[in-house]
Design brief:
Chain lengths: ~450, ~110
Amino acid sequence: MASARFADFAAQDAQNHGMKLRFSFPPYPLVGRPREILRKYVEGKDPISGRPLMPQVIEALTRPLSEEEKHPKTSRAAPRPRLLKPDTEENLHQLFLENGWTDGAPIVLPTEERVAHMLTGTAADPTEVVGRMSVTIHQEKLEYTVEKVAVNAVMAGAGPEHLPAILAIAASEEASMPSSTTSFGRMAVVNGPIREEIGMNSGLGALSPFNYANTAIGRAWTLMTINLGDARLGETFMGSTGNNMNYNNMMIAENEERNIWEPFHVRKGFKKEESTVSFFQGWSAVNSMGAAGCCRPAQEETLIMMQAFPCLRGALTLIMDPLVAKHLKEQGFDHPDQLSKYLSEKFRMTAGQFWGSDVVYSLVEPDARSGIEPYASWLKLPKDSLIAPYTSPEKINMVVVGGETQALWLTTDMWYIKTVSIDRWRPKSWVYKEDEQAPRRRYARRKRHAAALNASGYDPQ
Amino acid sequence: MAQKKAQSGGSLCTILDPRGQPTMVVQPLPLAPRLDTLQDKTVYVIDVGFGGGWEFLEEAAGWFARNMPAAKIVLQRKKGIMFVDEPEMWAEIKQNADAVIFGVGG
């Protein structure tokens, strides 16, 4: 049985696993509905078939199997040709829009010439298989080559210099919007020399749309998720409200130059001179809406902000301006791990608040009922008992981003997934260079920013 | 619509298909044989764990008690979360049940 809202999805899921199951569908939703309504659903009809629900269930268990159910056939989707049927630009734009192959905004059409130019951004063979991706575990993963990734990079408006980072994202096989009715968001953080080489913004307004590299790479991840991860609205993507993060996936670079701590990727075992991209997943971010240390130390303010989250995975990621990292160091946190330990140990939530969340009920309570600790003990506690649900300090991470106009930070419910190397996807020349003007403009901008900071009397130490 | 515009003129361009390639061959699985009747049979009703599912299946079990008391209903929760397979659960069902109702998805 599946609720009626997911009738098509459930049937497709079964088919993808080689089965033609006999489904029955009660009305949607079931969650939060009073008992008398649920009883009416049981006594009532399946809204999809229009037949009485429970007699239909009994029939599904007792009606003899058809020949098709006894001997289902092997199925395989038809391979897709490399090129689309030639058409006018206007019609092709319309085709992409109507087929759901874009994010809704205009794209750059991936002509053979443009894709060939994009491929000059990597030394990898265009036919090399990069990976397989799906937005849901209920569908098959689609396979893609370097050329397919380049096609989506062209569509996103990226340049060849961005391709190594885009290929690294593709090779991670991480979809930017994994399908969940809860509407996931993602974040990707680039570290290492490539940040500067391709002009990513890690400073002022890094999370806002002012930077070509951040914008194009983030959008390419979204388009790859749509086309390579097969995200189809209402078919494979079921996020109820969706998530605004999905547009650009919080694509940023870490501000290593102004970070008082060691860079994020170094803390994850990479060398400083390596270029990497790190992935995070969650739902939401809470803005501190004010300066660290104004009225209360940032670590104490963070404990308050953490109450906003259900603590599903005991994970947290703080995105903080360099000024906040500096403030926290002054508070005695010489290393981010010390802050992780502090937050893990000091945060408290009532057992009632913890178990009262739907996602915790669905995804944690089964462990508690199976006797897995500490959940089994927490489930037995009175609702007003206090628990420390962030049990693993290593799941609390910090990333330093921002332009030092405010000691501001975001507390997010994002969990860290993994860090992958970008360097493996670089061109033979190591750095793609076509236009010398762009690096010069970036350097001039950085110099102006440094001059403004110096003029303000800011002490970087 | 696309065809109509093409007829109205404009140079044609050739572009690449942006979509990933399906490669999986789905191995078909036949359904389990059906029963003649549920009378005197053991029917497992498994809650996979989505919110509201347990309460709904309790009501479904109540329906059986009122309308088909000769069927023995065993209502239980899936031990782990809904996204993880549990071979031991299927082994128990195969050993003890004549039929199973699994739900409620979504």
